[in-house]
């Protein structure tokens, strides 16, 4: 199955027999590798140093030979050298700033942007089955944060809803407004909540403190992206999160769906009802030894996540992340084939670097400022 056919029918591509799927992903990645090695002088030098050409890539086992770009390179001032496409063809610049304050910049040309939009819409339809309803976005809008990758990924859901609203404006979140919208939509359409885990958590905390228990609709989904660590380093417990979603929103755990991705890669792994994040058939994840990332580890072993993506024509989509996790290729009860990925933690010494971290850090700083403001003294009146 060729790349264009996989993008055109994501549901079928996710359910290809294993042998056919492996052949498809190897062919797609080999073609992408050949294009970047042939047209990108910087990347070609890495390939020549590694002694690998596209002719050497004939099986899944060979994918580990494809040279990787460390994700930190996207933070460098000269990151433009990573580009295969001319800068004049760049349509989108996606940025992410972590706790260190230095942004990653990932540029997409027109071909890449078209492929990514097609891929994500296909995944959303296959995993979520959304074609109507209302989406409550616990995030800023793209109008407010046009370069934020997480918001771009969320925004593509808009076209699948009849109505939607963003309730983070000027980096402020009003849970009463969120509750009002959910109540307004109650009689007319299925309600879905979309946002990073920490902001969904803020809504849940408000409902808990106010002793409010909602019951959303049988088809409601809670969709999250942005990681399960706060900027303070504190972990958000997925089990506790799911329990609170069911208690305060009436949405069972099987309809709470997390996603995993990073702005430097076009790969988005979406969770099925069994809480397994499925790697799309145009991508491959290679787990590398923490001490020596040239060594690929077998399935089930924990190591550094490398993401290989066939969609990118703007720069080589072969990224060595700073995330630690593992892959599993065992059959999933949902019927989808191929790899699933589990994220565990960041590499020791790596900063927390995602859009959700930046939003939470700013929201907290604004709240602290508000709490520390000294109220004005009452005006004196003459006796």
TrEMBL record:
Domain of life according to the entry: Bacteria
Record Pfam families: LuxE
InterPro entries recorded: ANL_N_sf, CapK_Type1_Caps_Biosynth, LuxE
Coiled coil: none
Record domain Acyl-protein synthetase LuxE: where: 14-361
PANTHER family recorded: CAPSULAR POLYSACCHARIDE BIOSYNTHESIS PROTEIN (PTHR36932)
Name used for this protein in its record: Acyl-protein synthetase
UniProt source species: Streptomyces sodiiphilus
């Amino acid at each position: 199955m060729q790349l264009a056919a996989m993008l055109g029918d994501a549901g079928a591509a996710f359910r290809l027999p294993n042998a056919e799927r492996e052949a498809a992903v190897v062919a797609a990645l080999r073609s992408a590798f050949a294009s970047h090695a042939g047209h990108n002088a910087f990347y070609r030098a890495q390939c020549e140093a590694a002694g690998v050409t596209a002719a050497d890539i004939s099986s899944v086992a060979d994918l580990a030979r494809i040279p990787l770009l460390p994700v930190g390179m996207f933070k460098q001032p000269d990151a433009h050298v990573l580009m295969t496409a001319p800068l004049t063809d760049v349509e989108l610049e996606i940025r992410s700033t972590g706790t260190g304050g230095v942004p990653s910049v990932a540029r997409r040309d027109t071909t890449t942007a078209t492929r990514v939009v097609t891929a994500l819409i296909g995944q959303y339809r296959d995993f979520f089955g959304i074609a109507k309803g209302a989406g409550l976005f616990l995030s800023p809008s793209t109008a407010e944060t046009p370069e934020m990758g997480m918001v771009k990924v969320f925004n593509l859901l808009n076209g699948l809803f009849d109505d939607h609203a963003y309730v983070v404006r000027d980096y402020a979140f009003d849970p009463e407004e969120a509750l009002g919208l959910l109540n307004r939509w109650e009689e007319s359409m299925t309600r879905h909540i979309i946002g990073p885990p920490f902001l969904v958590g803020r809504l849940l905390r408000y409902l808990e403190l106010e002793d409010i228990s909602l019951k959303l609709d049988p088809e409601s989904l809670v969709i999250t992206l942005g990681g399960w660590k706060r900027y303070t380093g504190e972990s958000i417990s997925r089990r506790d999160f799911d329990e609170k979603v069911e208690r305060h929103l009436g949405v069972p755990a099987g309809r709470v769906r997390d996603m995993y991705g990073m702005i430097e890669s076009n790969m988005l792994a979406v969770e099925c009802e069994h809480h397994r994040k499925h790697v799309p058939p145009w991508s491959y994840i290679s787990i590398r030894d923490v001490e020596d990332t040239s060594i690929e580890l077998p399935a089930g072993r924990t190591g550094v996540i490398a993401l290989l993506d066939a969609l990118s024509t703007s720069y080589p989509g072969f990224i060595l992340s700073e995330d630690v996790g593992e892959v599993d290729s065992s059959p999933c009860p949902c019927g989808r084939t191929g790899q699933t990925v589990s994220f565990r933690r960041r590499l020791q010494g790596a900063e927390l670097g995602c859009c959700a971290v930046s939003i939470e850090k700013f929201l907290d700083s604004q709240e602290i400022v508000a709490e520390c403001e000294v109220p004005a003294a009452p005006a004196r009146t003459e006796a």
